[in-house]
Design a protein that fits this description.
The chain is of the alpha+beta class and 173 residues long. The chain has one domain. It has a six-stranded mixed sheet with strand order 5-4-3-2-1-6.
Amino acid sequence: MRIRKPDPGLLDFLARYQPSVVELMLAVRRMVLEEIPSASETVNDVGYTVTNAFTFSGRFKDAFCYVVASRASVNLGFPHGTELPDPERRLTGTGKLHRHIRLSSPDDLEDPALRKFIHIAADRAMVAGGPVALKPQVVVRPARRGQAPSRGAERSRDGRGTHGLPGSRPKRR
């Protein structure tokens, strides 16, 4: 199966990280897309980190899993991680819903539990319903220059607003 190439925006955002982190982030991305090729991606530079979320709607809030870059590792996260079966307590985190697994080397990707978590999370997202993009897409959202990242000011590469509708505008504060 052929996996689509990473969006140039993702590669630009990752340029500030060490090559080992970039390689690992792209390897996790590849693994998710090998398992769930119909997933869309949202790529976000939020200033202090880069995230690559996987969703069926093209909206970050509908993501079933995401990858977050850090200085020396990446996290494979699940927005509804507390709802996933995890008898071995592999998922970590203290939030109400989110859980993640820290990955420090390409060898960590050999763990079959990762693919299992990805499939279960994707299955639950499909069962939950919601909008589904007919064709996988990539939405890239850079951090705004000179300002702390604002969720309400995000725009997709095609100029659409955060709701994916032409002319939709972020709420003013």
